[in-house]
Structures are given as C-alpha cells and as structure tokens.
Amino acid sequence: RAIYLKDYQQPDYWIETTALSFELGEESTLVTSTLNFKLNDTKTHAQLPELTLVGENMELVSVAIDGAVLSGDQYKVDSEQLVLQPQSEAFETYIVTRIKPQENTSLEGLYKSGGMFCTQCEAEGFRKITYYLDRPDVMSIFTTTVIGDKDKYPVLLSNGNAIERKDLDDGRHMVTWNDPFKKPAYLFALVGGNLEFIEDTFTTMSGREVTLRIFVEPHNITKCDHAMRSLKKSMKWDEEVYGREYDLDIFMIVAVDDFNMGAMENKGLNIFNSTCVLARPDNATDAAHERIDAIVAHEYFHNWSGNRVTCRDWFQLSLKEGFTVFRDAEYTADMYSRTVKRIQDVNFLRSAQFVEDAGPMAHPIRPESFIEISNFYTLTVYEKGAEVVRMIHSIVGSEGFRKGSDLYFDRHDGQAVTTEDFVAAMEDANGVDLSQFKRWYSQAGTPVLDVSDSYDEDAQEYSLTIKQSCPATPGQDTKLPFHIPVAIGLLDGEGEPMPLNGEGETTVVLDLKEPEQTFTFKADERPLPSLLRGFSAPVKVNYDYSREDLIFLMSHDEDGFNRWDSCQRLAINVLMELVADIQAGRELAVDPQLLAAYGKVLADESLDLAMIAEMLLLPSETLLAEQMDVIDVDAIHQAREFVRGAIAEAHKERLQQIYNSLNVDKPYQAEPEDIAERRLKNIALSYLVELDDAASVELAQAQFAAASNMTDSIAALSNLIGAVHESGKAVAEQALAEFAEKWADDTNVMNMWFSTQVTDSRFGTLAKVRELMEHPGFDKKNPNKMRSLVSGYCSGNLVNFHNISGESYEFLADEVIRIDALNPQLASRLINPLTRWKRYDEKRRELMLAALKRIQQQDLSKDLFEVVSKSLA
Ligand code: ARG
Ligand code: ZN
User: Fold this and answer.
1) Buried residues in 57-80 as b, exposed as e (16+ CB within 10 A)
2) pTM
3) Is residue 108 annotated as a catalytic residue, yes or no?
4) Domain Aminopeptidase N-like N-terminal, which positions (predicted)?
5) Mind spelling out the 3-state secondary structure of 804-827?
6) Which of the four, 139, 465, 607, 809, has the lowest number of CB atoms within 10 Å?
7) Given 290, 299, 383, 387, which residue is catalytic?
8) How far is the CA of 122 from the centre of ligand 1 (A)?
9) pLDDT digits (tens, 9 = 90+) for 344-396
10) What residues does 197 pair with on adjacent strands?
C-alpha cells in the first residue's frame, strides 16, 4: 500500500491540453473532459502502453477516443481507475462523468461549502472530479467552462482569464476561463456561488495592471480589506526581494468556511479557509491579522515557488512548501519585527515540529515513502523545510541566495522538479558544494549539539568543541553527520561582544561537518559563548550554562533572539527543577534569581515592548513536556502555575503600572507598535488575574466592557475565565453569554469563543466540551469548529485531556471514528494527541493504547490507517 520515492517513473503519456466543462446541478454535476494526449517518447516502449487514468467516487457516463465512442469491452473501469488502450501516439479522449459535490464531505475535489461550489485538489483531489493523470509532473493547459443557474450561482470562476461569458436560455449562464500557463491538476480550481467581491489593482514592475478581487459570501464583504492590503504588499515584496512579477491579468481569492487546511494556491484563483482571510479589527485578533497577512503572502508567493516551478512528485512537497514558508517568514520579518518573528517561529518549531521529529510519524523533509500523501503536509515538511532553506540562505549569504533563486526560476520555469534541482541551482550560482548539506533532506530527527569549551590562559585561546548526534527515527537507526551552520558570538566579562576574526566581526557562522569539531578563537579573557545565534539551525544545543550565565546573556547578548532564548533556558531550568520537587513531594519555592530576572525584564527600558512580551511568556506545557522522558502533565501544570503566581506576586505593582500605562483608549491599528502594546498589556493582565485579588477581576471586566477590538475583548474574556479570584466565575459566565449573543452570526468569532473555554484548565472540562458540541453555533462536520473545540481541548488543555480516568481518550477515539467516515484528512489530524502514547506513565499508556486499538478495529480510511498503524508499530 505504500508508495516509494525510489520507484518514481515518468508517465507514459503527457496531457498537452485539458478542456473541461462543468454543469453544476443540485442533484448532480456533469463533468465533460477533452484531453489531448501525447506519448512520452523519452521512455522506451515496445508497443503503445495502456493509459491508466485515476478517478474515484464518480459515475462514468461515456468515453470516446478520437471521436469514436467506446463500448464496454473497449475499456476497464473500477472504483479507482479507468484503463484505455490507445491506438496512436497522439490522441484525444472525450470523457463524461457525473459527480455529487453536495454529498462530498471529504472537502477534497469539488464540494459545497455553504451554498457555494468550490474545489480543493491538492494533493490528489482532482481524481474526485474526473478521470485524469492526477500527478504533478503532468502539466497541461486548462480551459474550463462552468455552467450554472444564474440566480443561485451568479459568480462562476476558474483559473486564468475569463475569455467568454453568455446567458443560456434555461436560466443558466456560462463562463469560460483559460489559463495560459501549463499546470498540474492539483492547481486546478473552480468556484460557483452567490458571492460579492472587493476589487483593487496592482501595477507590476514592468507596468502591467492586474485586477485583484476577493470574493466572499455577502455577509462577509466588510471583512476583506486587510487581506487586500496584504496581497498588494506581498506582490510588491516579491518584486523587490526576488524579482518575481505576477503573470495573469487577474488574481482572485475566495473565502470558504469548510476547508481542511489554511489556504490553497490554485493558479490565479486562491481558495482560503475563511479564518485565514477575513478580518476586521472588531472581529479578529492581532494574531489573526498577522496570520492572514502571512498566509495571503504565502499563497501569493506560490505563484512562482510552486506554480511556475512545481514538484515532480509528492515526495518533493518541501521543494515548494519549505521554500514558500521561508519566503513568507522573511516577508513577515520585513513587515514587522525580525527578532519577534524569529522567536515565534522557533517557539513553534520546538514545541511542535521537534515533537513530530521525536514521534512515530517522524520523517525527513523529503519522505521516502507514504501511504497517504495528505498525512505529509506536516510541520516537518513545512517548518523544518523552511529552516533547511534558511540554512542555505545563511551558507551562501543573501546575495548568493538571490543568485541561486534567479537561476532556479529561470532554469526550471514551466517544469516539475525536485529538491535536488533546487540545491543544484544554489550550488551552481554560488560555486559551493552542498553535497553533505543535502542530508538534511533525507535524514529525519532533530540533531543535538553537545558543546563544551576551554580557555588557555597562556595562549590566550578559547576553544569550543561541538559534538553532533541525531537520535534514531523510524526506519533510520543511524545517521551520518550533518553540515550544520552554527552562528556564535563571544561576550567578555562586561558583556561586550568580542571580535572573532580579522574583520572584527562579532558573529561568525561555524561550518560544523564532522561528528566532533573544535573551533579556536583568540581571546584575552575567558568569554561566555552565545550559541546558535538567531537559531541558525534546527537543532538542540546543550551547554552547561549556570543560571548566572543565562541572566547575563538575557541582558547583554547583542543577538536579540538569544536574549530571549537565554530567558527560555532559565525558565525551563527552574520549571523542571520544580517538577522534580513536586514529584519528590518537596516543598516548592521559586528561585529568587528567576523572579529578579523577570523584574529586570519588566524594568528594562532598552527592550522594546514586543520583546518584553515574548520574554514574559513562560515556555508552554507542551514544550516542557518535551523535556521529560516520562511526561508528568500534572506536575508540569502545577509547576508552571506556581511560577506564574510567584511572578505575579513579586511584580504586582510593576505589572499594574504596565497594564495601566498601556490600557489607553486609542483607535485600532494593526501596526507593529500597537500590536506589541496590546500584547504586553494583555500578558500583564494574565499575570494579574493569577492573584487572588478582586481588583484584577475588575480590570478584566472593565476591559471586556470597553473593548472595541477583538484582541482586547477575547483577552479580557479568557482572563476572566482563568481568573483565580472567586469573583471571576460569575463575571466570566456573564461575559461569555454576552459575547455569544453579540457574535452569534460570526462563525469565526464563535470558534474563538469555543476554544477559549475549553483550553482553560479549570473551566474547560470534558463535560464542558460535550456541552459545547451541542451548542447551536457548533457544527460537528466543520473542520474549523472541530479544531476549535476538540483539538483545542485535546492539545491545549493537557491536564484535563490526560485525566487519569482516560475518559478524554475515549472521547477523542469516538470523535476520530465518527469523523473518519466523513472526512479522513480531518480524522488523521484530530488523532494526533493519542499517537504520543509512549511518552506517558504506564496507566495512561495503557488507556491511550486501548483507545488507539479500538480505532484500529474499525474500517479505516488510508489517511487514518497510516497514522494509527505507524503509532502502534
Ligand atoms: N498548498 C497549500 C499550502 O500550503 C496546502 C494545501 C494542502 N492540502 C491538503 N489536502 N493537504 O499553501
Ligand atoms: Zn504552501
């Protein structure tokens, strides 16, 4: 059942042109396809090979080749494919099929969301639309005619430019679209619905005017402006930084409520999960605004990194995703704060991708095999993939990287290529050898660097010895050494950066290539090392820092990322010591050094507000869990709450002062400084409500009443829910009710309302989750809702999910089984928390295993089968 990279072969036939016609109907939709095939003459053929087209869940109405209708004995068809025997090297097929989009709950292929028709074809959804060579190396010119009822579906869209529109005399109308660029079927898109749009224009660097449109259901028309601004900024940025220009006359975005992922880069017609595009200050948080900006940019950037140059096969997914995530991260860094963006990305990588790398589904960024490709749209392929591209960027420098990307786009425009091709372009443009570096593409797991140092007083030499290793992962017991760029700096006793080379540079990138290597520097005193600056490689670093060292780095390191990281290390250090104290039944006390360090951060005038905010956030429970061989969720939760309370006690006045100084009434702006102010203010409030103090509840209550933007409103709500003081309860209930009434018609706001409740450890019990699943604003089929409530609880409320009764495991198993019958992609993501069973104590391990085995007993989708069987292996 598994497919292997090593088995890749070119197809026997190519498809030169694809003409499709869709008659959208309520009972069924008729799809007519006219395909022009040509034998792949780079392959040797003894005779004309059979043509195997894939297709699922469709009724074959008729099939003809070169105008001759085939009788039943002239083709073979089953539930997965249609097999034809061509009679010549070039021929045309004419295939009519019938599908039922209104019954398609998998959200792959053509389906209905709300009243509208829409598609999601990546990775292998096109085969649910019509019989085709549904593989990314088959690139074709598409012409698409969409026919539908004019009242119900006044808007009919597909890829490219509209070339013809006309009304039919039966109340229907039709629009024909042509996409002049060759593309694989996964980039095909179609939309039909009653939509409104906002419009703008962008003039490209060569002076072409492009029409930009965002289509939404009428009630969402006021929520599109932010995304439109983001789109224009991204178009400009890609011209400036990569020299890439948009290539069609029109660029369209459509928002849909039912969507498995974030968004999709279909050529000229991006389709977005509505949470990733709709935002107005009053109904979307700052974080949502930033996420939308990044996703709009990401999908836009795919026009080059993904569409003009695409993937040869799905093992190459990181070719487009890793590169495009890197591109969107750099865009965000340029638009907001570079250091803060880096901190947030690394935090995410460590608390989620490192976990994946250590779990049963661990895979290299270019996997070697898969059962279901949808399961490989992972943090590893995306985020670690982006880190790998970032390392290339740091090895060749930004000018070298631009030379490499220019060569890559130029060399491979219109082609379906591999990660090897990408690396080769970087090598050729820069005359560097990345052969050892390429192991990052084929070896899974998070490398570990063990760093030690010594100082030779007489020679005035400082030596750093770095040993690399990488834990075994499924199917890969041993690893070869990686080429790891390790950026470092050295601090003298005053905290000043020491020059590291003749040019007086204070940060250098060490090329670690051996299992163990020593690097020596001239130094007139023993320095303190600042390691892996800017997180120059996706690895773990062990170095025996004392708490004093970390506190010193927190205030002196010239590398902003490492100032934050030293704070993280210090907090992890203290928290894990408390976890051990809890397990041993010892009395708890927070190291005063930690409290003093936080006091210093709170008072540091040199830090910008965004940095203070990041430093104040303690490592998440998930990240702390990763520090333990056997995860003790209760002790982790208790330790973390204890430290939060202690910080609040120790710095109450300062926190109040910060809160009050930032809690001023001013018009909302989604600008970096405003965002930082709101963030810091709300973090201060979250500490204050840790105090058993009615005044803190009153602050949150007042903020809730006065808030005119969603960031402040939802923060106030969640701080009321989380407040320690008794008076918080009634106020929280009242606020929740008011909020739900106000936002009943805004589905995405209601999703926040759901998740805010179930992620709180005291409020969000399993009973609460069950109760909310029956709420009229909930929909048990909708991925966004299921993620808010079920994943919100199972991944965001660890103490309750892992309650020793095991009832939450049973609950999750039930939900996974129920969803798998409707939407396999969603099911195989929901199950994730259960797959980590090996990391828990014996009792929980048994309970989680029992839940997994019960799932395994069912008749499973490929998606879920792969995840369950790998977790149990
Ligand atoms: N290519 C899209 C993006 O990252 C994601 C589409 C994923 N779809 C899927 N069925 N897994 O921008
Ligand atoms: Zn992408």
Assistant:
1) bbeeeebebeeeebeeeebebeee
2) 0.99
3) no
4) 76-187
5) CCCHHHHHHHHHHHHHHCCCHHHH
6) 465
7) 299
8) 6
9) 999 999 999 999 999 999 999 999 999 999 999 999 999 999 999 999 999 99
10) 215
